[in-house]
Amino acid sequence: ILPVPGDQTEYTFPAEPNQRWVIKLRATNQVGSSRWSAEQTATTRQGAPGAVRDLRVKALSPNEVHVQWLAPLVQRGTIVGYDISYRLKHRLACPEEEPRDVSRDFVTVYNHKDLDYTITGLLPYSLYEVRVRARTTELGPEETKEVSTEQQPPSSPPLNLELTYALERSLSFQWEPVDCSQRHGHIVNYEYEILGQDDWAKLERQIANTSETRITVDGLTPFTKYVMRVRAYNSIGGGQ
User: What is the dihedral of CA 128, 134, 140, 144, to 10 degrees?
Assistant: First the structure.
């Protein structure tokens, strides 16, 4: 019961969001009090919910991340959905570079109804920032996690393979690493193959691995045409 001065005909009192109140009035003088008026009900407006709880993010593949969470403990209304936002922070093979093929702006899925969501279409071996917040008629605060997508084999070959010099029985080659946006993992070595092309060297074939970007192949047949190719390997497998 709240006392109100007799010369007032309105009153404002503090209340929590989304609370239902039953209100009735009576008049009081020095002799006593009147009967209560008829009851009126009122509900305060919904407020912003609290933060979602136990936000978890897990990479499912090079291109997918699973996000799950629990509803806010403090809801201040009816939770009508969740907003899931994500953005690329950087490719892990290119930590010093700004993302060139995507925007730094967040991509947002609005008003999602469930307590989990799978984000698809992501880049391999890349660091993403993921945010989730609940909504009533207002938006709650965001909870944030970072997650790295899984690796996959390189999607392009090493660059600028070239012959550096030729001797009677040996050839030397060099190349540049795979472009960092196509590595999709940490490059651990290179596999090179050299094949004889002339009729008398059709069976000549050498395959070997190296961690360097420059090699010399010995034991070749003089005055013979060869084809050389090289591909990069990360911890998942070999590229093109």
Answer: -20
